[in-house]
Amino acid sequence: MSETQWGNESAFRRSLRQFRDKYFQNKRHAANKNTGEEEDDAPGILESLPAEVQFRIMAFLCPRDLCRLGGTCRYWRSVVRDPLLWRYYFVRDMTLWSSIDHTSMPRLEALDTPLRYDPGQDFMAEYLRSCPACRRRWRPPRAAHGAVASFLQSLSLAAEPRFLMFGPGLEQLEVSLMNVMMRSPHLLPVAGTPRRQIDGVGSGVSFVFHDQHKFNILVLYSNNSIERERARLERQNVHSRLFVQEGDGQTDSPVYSIAPFVQEVCRAVDGFIYVANAETGRGGAPEVAQAQLQAMLDPLWGSSSRPVLVLSCVSREGPGGTGTGTRTPCILLAHQLNLRQLQNPWTVQDTVSESLSGVVDGIGWLLGASGLRV
Q1: Is residue 374 domain-resident?
Q2: What's the structural domain count of the chain?
Q3: What is the pLDDT of residues 178-219, one digit of tens each?
């Protein structure tokens, strides 16, 4: 258990004990004033349990069951509405979530802000909005202007939408995501053979989603296959032909532009797939990844309404999600890439190269965000 999680748990336990003592003290005081108090007002079995036992019971409940518990009586309604409880749940669960998107990304800095400085923070609503299991149920209906924009975007789509795939997760992982995708017809049948390369660093492949929607992925690698393999074996960053660093490169906040041939590709695609290396300790400097992603999504190269799918990728299943170590949680990856500042709609999806776990869900979101009915 992390220090932050332990602190939030201790804070809620203390709050629960104080509330419980005060609640029953007030009930006894009211009973002394009204000796004819009905038996129905007597505390139930769960309310009579010690605060530590109550906390342990709540720790096993899912958010939906916790909300149902809050609807049983005044005591549990007050307990379940305690913001300290939901802040504890937030810190405990957020690193386990398999996806996060532009509509559900929480303000992580609020988790470290004492409630006395931000008394209006509703962690219950924030949790239910962010948790993947609750997201669809609690998400508000799309605004009318959003529906109109999606409809107009669907009219402009080509019969076969095109997506640009790039990122360090394509090159640094032991298991190649793209190779597995091309050899998995049970998940994503290949509908077209690889097309010509672009300046030797990219190619396009067509797939079929759910035997219904045909789409094309244009893959851009940072360099040729020989240089990529050498850098992977030596665990070094390969020199990228996709990006040009501005200035002398000595600043803490690097700035990049994209090569001219990449600009033409960006103008021609309907969305983006960024493959991040989520294996802990191998993702490189987050400042560089953030700057390169922003350079690729610059509004100069096309509409900011084009969706961005971030595949938080590891090679294979294993302890913590990887074969050799732990996985960077998708919510932390979104924070590192500063995705909240993007104008584009985006989602981060946990992915495993070897099994393609999460890939189909991510592609489904990407096609839907591009205006297709999936």
Answers
A1: no
A2: 2
A3: 999 999 999 999 987 666 555 555 668 999 999 989 999 999
